[in-house]
Write a structure and sequence with these properties.
This protein is mainly alpha-helical. About 95% of the residues lie in helices and about 0% in strands. The chain is built from one helix and no strands.
């Protein structure tokens, strides 16, 4: 295998690893954002249900 081919393959592998890492980190960020939004929504729903229950008890 020639030097140029080995150099090209090594840089290609380096870029591939970089892209995989970037996609992984982006996926983690999206997952955290969606989880935070879901938790906030569930918290609000629980608060509304508790208020409705208290009003029904009074």
């Amino acid at each position: 295998m020639s030097f140029r081919l080995r150099l090209f393959l090594s840089f290609s592998l380096l870029w591939l690893l970089f892209l995989v890492g970037a996609l992984y980190l982006a996926g983690q960020g999206v997952e955290r954002a969606l989880r935070g939004h879901l938790e906030a929504t569930l918290r609000e729903d629980a608060k509304r249900a508790a208020e409705a229950y208290r009003k029904g008890q009074a």
